[in-house]
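Postdoc handover notes: sequence design on the structure in folder B. Input tokens:
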């Protein structure tokens, strides 16, 4: 199964080692799912996760970038040839939707469910990290 991670998942994982976001990120690579990534989403991850307020205590922006390079190496890199903009309220969310459609993702894993409404026509379900972990537990 292929999924797209919204930036909120990585921010939550950086802030706490106790939550579902951290558990998902820590599980990569995972035989049950593959994370899709586009160049534009990777650029957003870099910009957001190197902000001082998102750095884990004692970590530097260079360390965050090194982690993101590792994470990118665990992802399916997807080219995007067709833009769906504007579909969602936030252009950054449209970028995640475009990735999910291009990569044929079944889910967008995010903490911002209200920003990813009405995706049924694309065959994509927005799901929280916690609910995605529960879904993975039901898979063989």
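Designed sequence:
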């Amino acid at each position: 199964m292929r999924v797209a991670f919204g930036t909120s998942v990585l921010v939550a994982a950086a802030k706490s080692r106790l939550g579902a976001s951290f558990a998902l990120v820590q599980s990569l690579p995972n035989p049950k799912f593959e994370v899709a990534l586009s160049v534009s989403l990777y650029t957003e991850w870099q910009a957001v996760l190197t902000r001082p307020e998102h750095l884990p205590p004692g970590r530097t922006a260079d360390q965050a970038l090194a982690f993101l390079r590792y994470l990118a190496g665990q992802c399916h890199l997807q080219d995007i040839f067709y833009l769906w903009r504007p579909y969602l309220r936030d252009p950054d969310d449209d970028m995640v939707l475009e990735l999910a459609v291009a990569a044929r993702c079944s889910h967008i894993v995010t903490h911002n469910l209200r920003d990813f409404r009405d995706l049924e026509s694309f065959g994509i379900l927005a799901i929280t990290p916690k609910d995605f972990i529960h879904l993975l537990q039901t898979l063989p």
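Context for whoever picks this up: The chain has one domain: 2-138. Don't rerun without checking with the PI first.
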